[in-house]
Fold:
Amino acid sequence: MIWKAELGNGRYRNPIIYTDYSDPDVIKGEDGFYMVASSFGNIPGLPILYSKDLINWDLINYAIHKLPGKPTDDRRPQYGKGVWAPSIRLNNGVYYIFFPIPDEGIFVTSSLEPRGKWSEPRLLMEGKGMIDPCPFWDDDGRAYLVNAVAKSRTGYNNVLYITEMSVDGRRLLGERTQVYDGASDGNTTTEGPRLYKRDGHYYIFAPAGGVKEGWQVVLKSDSIYGPYEARTVMRQGNTEVNGPHQGAWVVTPGGEDHFVHFQDVGAGGRIVHLQPMRWREDGFPVIGIPTIDDPTVGEPVGEWEKPKGVNAFRYIGKGSNFSSILPWQYNGEPSSKDAVLRENPFSITIPAVSVREETALALVPDILLRKWESPEFIYEGKIDISELREGDMCGIISMGLNYASLAIKHDTDNLIKILKITGEIIFDGSEYSVNETREEIGSFTDVPEVSFNFLVQKSNTVILSFFTKGAKTISLRTEGNPGRWVGAKYGFYNIRPEAGDAGADRKESRGFITVKDTVLY
Structure:
């Protein structure tokens, strides 16, 4: 059952999005609300979502279609690298997204229309480990950038910096200034800052304590450069929402305050919650509902009233198919042309890419992947394999640091072998290696298409299945496994032996498969 936050009675339940949109940032735009999130090494990157009511969200665009700063000849998937926590802002009619690539620095892209084309990203702050940027335009006409640092690249963390920048966001003005060190008051791993101003005071909303067990902190100062007073304003409390932090303060047109944040649920990824928020007389907010032992600190709500003063939104159930290519991303920067969305909205054509036969699937950037959209769901359809030739291989995959695939390999003119492929991505610091095994577990004879079924159960059990008319179903049971700071994904690939590999005759292969008649429920 696909997750639905809208309850239909003027209330909603959390999470508002049961999909891996890590490190969300949200603003009130000219015609509704816009959200951006981390995309790490997946391409296209920097997803942009839109909502009119903060509850029901649609994926409408991506801001980048390749990773800036990466060598063009390096096509290995960038697990754990790529785009980390971004921020989105609107200033003088221009939308800006600031985002870090941890080994390069902080980039910025802009657009007059979030659904349109975004500018080529430009490097604003060069520096290894400079992460989590957020711009701020003050009411005196000056502009600033706040950012955190990654310990994996710099050897230290907990620290937040502010740097003045030009109003157009194109250059920095002077050196950065350290404004806070979370180690001084127990806020370890302070990161993900968002900078705001209210009633003449400057506020930095920042998570602390780490993704899975952390809390939300708010810093307050009368000066942009501090000193800042820190308060914990939300923690897990007596709820099941672990690590409630890192997100955005949003004010509706009706004047209500809300906070959007994520929760790490393992294989399901970093899913998005919406909390009520109110300001206390001491100038600090409480996010969620006050905890029993301390009314100055909030805890997450499981269900709440929908925000008031927002435009009506009619929920349209997601059941779907390939009516939009937007939910699909590649495992890295693809070598092929983009997957082709046909006139029939229930099918997609995936071109073949040439790889060495011994290449592990985890090293193939052209795998087309999709995030989980619920704690349990079924995705099924058919794969037209009539264009496969000897040596070609396609399949369905459950992708994470541990991954599993059912593969269709064309062996001879009328024999299709079914392979079980399992692998593990092993990290050493920020670099990785892959171990993979392949085993033949069945076969089909003389079939132009194979039906598939991808089942996710609440226990994170994943079952991949192939079947044809009159043939025995072939299934693979595995455990849904998160990736490097991302949730598990599912999807398809289509590969063929590189010219020069044994048995590779590319003149015979038209090189595509078609996935069709798909249903997600």
Remarks:
- The domain at 328-520 is CATH 2.60.120.200 (Jelly Rolls).
- The CA atoms of residues 232 and 294 lie 11 Å apart.
